[in-house]
Amino acid sequence: MKCFKANPRTADILERLAHLSTRATISDICKLIGIAKLSLGVIYSGEYCNVDKKVGLNANSIYYVRSISKAIVTASFTLLIYKGKLSWFTPLKELILKYANPVTITRFTELKSEANIEDLLAMWTGLPTLLILKTETARIFGLLEPQYKFRLKIGSPARASSLEQSTKGLLYNHLGLNITTFNNPAKDNYITAYITLTDRSPLTVPYPPLRFNHLLAAVSPRAVINEHSHYYSSLVSVNSYKSPRGLPTIAKGIPEPVQLIYYNGAIASALSAIYLLLKTNTFALCDAPDWIAQFLMEILAKERTLSAKLRELSKYVKRYYNSISNFYLNVAVHGDNGLRITT
Predict the structure, then answer these.
(1) Cα distances (Å, whole numbers) of residue 222 to 98, 185, 189
(2) Are strands 222-224 and 270-277 parallel, antiparallel or unpaired?
(3) Which residues contact 106 (CB under 8 A, 6 or more apart)?
(4) 310-332 residue pLDDT tens
(5) What pLDDT score was predicted for residue 148?
(6) List of domains in the chain
(7) Closest Cα partner for 33 from 322, 228, 221, 283?
(8) Whether pLDDT at 110 is above 80
(9) Cβ neighbours around 149 below 10 Å, total
């Protein structure tokens, strides 16, 4: 735990706020109520202190998101399709004139004539496996150009701007994603990936920019946790829990499965992953921010007192109903000195 430097007048406040018992109490409140994460700040004397500030990395550190960028581009295409400018079944040859050229992009006739936007975004435009020896993979794969070229040009006929500008106009600007970028970040708080050589020295791993004719350009986008959390919260809020095409039932009598949307990104020296549980309970049992704010008020006022006579925990055990008796909480003794609340 690290806080901002304090002058003597505020040192006592910082000491009480940063005390391990304070953090432990807040963690216990979150655990009992069901709060997954909590952002907490205290304003004092015109300054700001982040009680849970981490050393080094923080939520505004800029990371490479790797292949998760493909999901971002897909969201942009979805907006264009929703606006009627494109269709999932629009052939790629209608969007990229050079795509059907017999000497460019791919030699497979089916891909040139039948591949569409859905195929592109679902990565159905290449072979399922590499039919070559492992020893020859790197040498041969370095010369293959089955799909990466047209990934960057796909949006230009429908949107007369670069992919960076299109994505910003369709998504980022509306969601307030000001730091997320397909280019070099403007701020210094960004992560640089590296690998370790045989002599144990670090070597920075450069990544290609998002430009035409650059292999693996999908790894170039960078984002921050704060902004991407907001981005995925927006996706969850506008999508239903059910798959539009439905999911098959593989066995009778099994509990209803929890739907999970998963996507990951991976390349040398860096990994990323997204897990979206659409049916996760997002409303806590109690008002944790209010309770924790009251707790901090007691700390600031130095008025935390322990009653000389404690009530027995069994006195609290009962079923508590709301005013219209359609919801209740069960309170029971848990362990030697705790209470458990269930619904």
Answers:
(1) 29, 8, 12
(2) unpaired
(3) 112, 125, 145, 146, 147
(4) 778 888 899 999 888 888 889 99
(5) 41
(6) 1-55 (no CATH), 62-277 (3.40.710.10), 308-343 (no CATH)
(7) 283
(8) no
(9) 20
